[in-house]
Each structure stands twice: as structure tokens, then as C-alpha cells.
Amino acid sequence: MAEALLRHHLGDDATMPVASVGTIGWNGYPATPHAVEVLAERGIDLGSHISRKINRDDVARADLIIAMTRKHGWAVAAHDAEASTRTFLLGEVTRLAREQRRNGESLRDWAEAVARTRKPDRPMGQASDEIHDPVGESIEVYRATAVVLDRLLGELAAAITARR
């Protein structure tokens, strides 16, 4: 859901590629029926989504990595420890990015600047920054998750497009 919602908020901006990968071994599976339905209610087609498992190349290419939970963020670090300077929990990056100013830097440089605002020697984000996966839950849980994702990803899209 997050990939599709971020694409939606970015609009037709092809200069900002968005990709979703997972940390568990679900490779090649479609989105859950609840995810497809909830996004369809928002006018977003998720029917062609196919899951992909994270790999080292994905991490190396990414200028900004958004994790839903700390466990996901730590999985990114297992692929590339240096990626921690551009890996954030979704709630964390939107919270920290509010303090950043527009200065025309690249997305990677912007992400690293945002990372420098973190408190030193602390784990990634706060518990309240995590977005828990609704897989296996009711459609109401998916809807509630989509509301949170939509708000945060809208804020993120506004922050990163203002800084290009």
C-alpha cells in the first residue's frame, strides 16, 4: 500500500522512482485482497503489484529508504550498514523532515541531512513512528493503516518534491 500511495502523492513525477521490497521471503505474490480493495476505494489500482524481497542492489541504489518498523530498518542495515544514513521509519522521516529547509540538494543528500538531525546513539525512530503490517487483519485494520500511510506519505511527498 505504501508504494502505491507514495506514487499517488508524487503524481506523474517519473524523475522520482518508487519501489517496494519486503524483508520476508514473499517474492512474486500479489497484494492482499484487502489492500487491493482499500486502495481501490481511494481510486488507486494495486491489482498489478507483485512482491519482491529486498536485496543488496536495491539498498545500494536507493537514495531514501523508508521502513515501516525498526525490524525492517535493521534488515536494510544487514544488507548495507552505510544505508542507515538514508533509512528511516516512515513516521520518523516525516517528523524530522519538518525541520529541514529547501536547498536544492539531491534526494540522497537530503536524506543524509535529515539523518544527521537524529539523536546520537539512539535506535532508529521511536516506537510511535512504526507502521505495523496489517496482513492477516480485518479490512477495517487495513483501512486504518491506509489512513495513517496516506497522511504520512502525503507529508513525505511534499517534503521531497519541495527539495528537488
**CATH fold-level assignment:** Rossmann fold
Radius of gyration: 15 Å
Classify the secondary structure makeup into a structural class: mainly alpha
Q: Give the N-terminus to C-terminus distance in angstroms.
A: 24 Å
Question: Beta-strand level of the residues, as a percent range?
Answer: under 5%
What would you say the CATH architecture is?
A: 3-Layer(aba) Sandwich
Order of helices and strands: HHHEHEHHH
Strand order of the largest sheet: 1-2
* Total count of strands: 2
Full CATH superfamily name: Response regulator
Helix content: 40-55%
Write down the overall mean pLDDT.
88
- The total tally of domains equals 1
User: What's the level 1 CATH class?
Assistant: Alpha Beta
List the helices and strands and how they pair.
Elements: H1 2-10, H2 33-40, H3 56-61, E1 65-67, H4 70-79, E2 87-89, H5 90-97, H6 107-115, H7 139-162
Helix pairs in contact: 1-7, 2-7, 5-7
Question: What brief labels describe this structure?
Answer:
single chain, about 160 residues, mainly alpha, Rossmann fold, 2 strands, about 45% helix
Structure report:
The relative contact order is 0.19. The chain has a single domain, classed as Rossmann fold, CATH 3.40.50.2300. The protein is 45% helix and 4% strand. By secondary structure, it is mainly alpha-helical. It has helices at residues 2-10, 33-40, 56-61, 70-79, 90-97, 107-115, 139-162, and strands at 65-67, 87-89. The longest helix has 24 residues, at 139-162. The chain is built from seven helices and two strands. The mean pLDDT is 88. The chain has a two-stranded parallel sheet.
